Amino acid sequence: MMDATNILKEAFEKQNGAGGSLAEYQQENWNMFSGLGLPAIKHEEWKYTRIRNVFTDKLVINNDNNLSQDALEKLILKGTENANRIVFINGRFLETLSTTTDSADVICIKPLEKAAGDEDANFVNINLGHSQRYHGDGINALNAAFANGGVYIRVNKGATLNNPIIIYHISNSSHGLRFSQPRILVNIQEAAQVELIETYINMGGGETLTNEVVEISAEKDAVLHYVKLQNEGEKTNYAGTTHIRQTGKCLTHAVTITLSGSIVRNNLNMVMEAEHGESHMYGLYLLKGNTLADNHTIVDNAMPHCFSNELYKGIMDDASTGVFNGKIFVRKDAQKTNAYQSNKNILVGENASANTKPQLEILADDVKCSHGCTIGKLDEDALFYLRARGISAENARSMLLHAFAIDIIEQIKNEEIKAYAEQLVAERLSFNI
Amino acid sequence: MLKINNLQASIEEKEILKGINLDIKPGEIHAIMGPNGSGKSTLASVLAGRSDYEVTGGTLEFMGKDLLELSPEDRAKEGLFLAFQYPVEIPGVSTTNFIKSAVNEKRKYLGLEPLDAAQFLRNMKEKMKLVEIDQSLLSRSLNEGFSGGEKKRNEIFQMAMLEPKLAILDETDSGLDIDALRIVANGVNQLRTKDNSFLVVTHYQRLLDYIVPDFVHVLYKGRIVRSGTKELAKELEVKGYDFIKAEVDQELA
Ligand SMILES: Nc1ncnc2c1ncn2[C@@H]1O[C@H](COP(=O)(O)OP(=O)(O)OP(=O)(O)O)[C@@H](O)[C@H]1O
Ligand SMILES: [Mg+2]
User: Fold this and answer.
1) How many angstroms separate the CA atoms of B233 and B239, rounded?
2) What domains appear along chain B, each with residue ranges and CATH number?
């Protein structure tokens, strides 16, 4: 069989054989993965997303997990030189290239494997794998089987970071279909304020496949602004979960921007475990070629008085496909929940398509939930209005698409990242006013 | 300036314009009146180049050029302007940026240098005064949440900025209060020269007290069925359309 089983098995045995504080956890997950296999499209949650087909015998896992300082500097986003920088090469955390610019009194960044065996072990025990309660599939387990390459981030009680944390995921694809499995565990303690940004880089011009799991737990009065910026190029395949727990009343805010890729699957969970929590989820997928971008989101309201707002927008050009699935759970005790969801799609390309599915499961009776979705073409009336003023059809189109997309970008709190994303979107839409 | 010859147009197989003839010379103001649904906005849209309408016959000549050969944007750049009966709300597009690109795309088409920020601003300030439009309105998204009157005033402001040769005003007076009506009319009168022309669609003779037309036409069932001077508008104000409808329906029967 021309699949990846043997390659994965060999890689697993090689790295788990080294022992370490996560060896047992990894073995359990390997066993789970071996039982479940990879999600196929007959799996309801994966019906549009043939990620399994990318797992072929061409996968390249271990080698070249290195990068020179000079090569790294060229990849750093402009204006973010002062950021706390976390570097992953081929899915493995590279401590030597990572830098912490905020004081060690407020932030700690270290290998996950280390955290699992030191004073942070308790947090790791409770939170590592928490996302599996929502994604009990083989692909999540497969990532967990390689968790020892991951990173642990703790932001201490009361700290407001001076600088954002930027995670660079660098995949070296020059030896074939590069397979990377980054694992990130984040502990945001009481009243800490954090900006966390993830960005992805494909070096080498070949194909990549990334399977990522990020688990974040935020305590009372914490504030998290999270951004995932995906613009790795057309040869990228990605499946990842960002799982955010609110263990106390806090504010968590996520923006997911997808600008390119072959198959891209993003799971985003907001687990609201405390009263009066607030969460925001924004997404923009700006697709062309044959890209498929699939965003699955979950808001789980377990306690009363929580607020969540969700807005995802897609523009599909050429033969690209946008998929949105938004689940909102309101559990029996979660009275006075306010949950809003909206998904808007514009089909530009002749062969473009969009699939959107809100899934609300409401067990409490005193709640306000709303959802709406649209799939349409550019507004002809607006287009004509602009053209009737002398603006060319082409520019009118980019003006309208830009206007549609930009309010998601404006949700990005970090000014440098926002400016960068604005520039990428303007370039993509040939918007130059 | 504009020669409309036996123009026929339809939408979704339904014939709306059934042979319009109209000749507008430089410096003239023509008013078009007529009952609801008679085809006035359709005529305006066809002139501006809206592609939903299929021109099934006739010719359109503007400044010696065949309008039907030109895209909507090129018509605008040649000097045609349509003030919409229902200006479109466009969230996320800044009014100022939009007008600036419109002005500069036109300048480029005419082989002129684009206006720099300072020149554009000066120009804008001057025209804002002319139509008494507020700066705060222009810093908002295009027409978004504008009141009916504000939208109309914004149309006239855009007209002032673009300095068209022929401006078609489709019920720009509808929904305006008395003061706004006077301001809009003043704006038009101040922009009026011996070289540029106006085609004013209105239901109300009142507007024509301010903008005095050279000719008044009545459009009914897709045809211009009466033409006259401003006295015709006064007569309609008193008698309504019934007498014309009756005469025309009899002729057609
Ligand atoms: N998209 C369309 N589909 C079908 N019929 C249409 C469409 N657009 C216009 N019409 C019809 O064409 C006819 C003329 O409409 P038009 O808007 O030109 O009238 P009008 O003279 O401007 O009326 P009003 O005074 O109410 O503004 C009407 O019967 C209208 O219903
Ligand atoms: Mg009309």
Assistant:
1) 10
2) 2-252 (3.40.50.300)
Best of B33, B38, B245 for a ligand 1 pocket test (most atoms within 8 Å of beta carbon)? B38
The Cα–Cα gap between A140 and B246 comes to 78
Q: Using the 8-state DSSP alphabet, how is residue B241 labeled?
A: S
- Confirm whether A279 is domain-assigned: no
Inside any domain, residue A327? no
Average pLDDT of the segment spanning A190-219: 97
Is residue A2 scored above 60 in pLDDT? no
Classify residue A329: in a domain, yes or no: no
The predicted structure's pLDDT at residue B25: 97
Q: Report residues whose beta carbon is within 6 angstroms of any ligand 1 atom.
A: B 11-12, 14, 16, 34, 36-42, 85
Pair A312, A324: CB distance under 8 Å: yes
Tell whether the torsion through CA atoms of B216, B218, B224 and B226 is positive or negative: negative
What value does the mean pLDDT of chain A take?
95
The model scores a pTM over 0.90: yes
Number of domains composing chain A: 2
CB-nearest to A406 from B84, B88, B92 is B92
Q: Is A386 on the interface with B (CB under 8 A)?
A: yes
Mean pLDDT of A115-123: 97
Which residues does B118 contact at the CB level (< 8 Å), separation at least 6? Answer: none
**Which residues of chain B have a Cβ shorter than 8 Å from any chain A Cβ?**
48-50, 52, 71-73, 75-77, 82, 84, 87-88, 90-93, 97-102, 105-106, 109, 141, 158, 162
Q: Kindly determine whether residue B91 and residue A403, on different chains, have CB atoms separated by under 8 Å.
A: yes
- Domain-ending residue, one of A253, A274, A295: A274
The rounded percent of chain A whose pLDDT value lies above 70 is 99
In this structure, the number of other CB atoms found within 10 A of the CB of residue B223 comes to 18
- The range of the structural domain enclosing residue A120 comes to 5-274
Kindly write down the DSSP assignment for every residue of A248-306, as one continuous string: SS-EEEEEEEE---SEEEEEEEEEE-STT-EEEEEEEEEE-TT-EEEEEEEEEE-STT-
> Strand pairing of A278-287 and A251-258?
parallel
Is a pLDDT exceeding 50 seen at residue B208? yes
- Residue A152 identity (one-letter amino acid): Y
Q: Which atom of ligand 1 is nearest to the CA of B43?
A: 18
pLDDT of A1 > 60? The answer is no
Condensed to tens digits (0 to 9), the pLDDT of residues A259-278 reads 999 999 999 999 999 999 99
Q: Which of A242, A274, A306 is the last residue of a domain?
A: A274
pLDDT reported for residue A3 = 77
Give the nearest partner residue to B90 out of A380, A395, A403, using CB atoms.
A403
DSSP state of A145: T
Q: Answer whether A384 sits within 8 Å of B50, measured CB to CB.
A: yes
pLDDT at position B198 over 70: yes
Let me know if A277 is exposed, middle or buried by CB neighbors in 10 A (0-12, 13-18, 19+). buried
Q: How far is CA B224 from CA A162, B11, B237, in A?
A: 72, 19, 18
Instruction: Give the per-residue pLDDT at A193.
Output: 98
Give the largest CA-CA distance in chain B.
62
Q: Does some domain include residue A65?
A: yes
Distance of CA A303 to the CA centre of its chain: 25
Residue owning tokens 């697993």: A12
Q: How confident is the model at residue A433 (pLDDT cuts 50, 70, 90)?
A: low
pLDDT in tens, B223-236: 999 999 999 999 98
With 60 as the cut, is the pLDDT of residue A302 above it?
Answer: yes
Rounded percentage of chain B residues whose pLDDT exceeds 90? 79
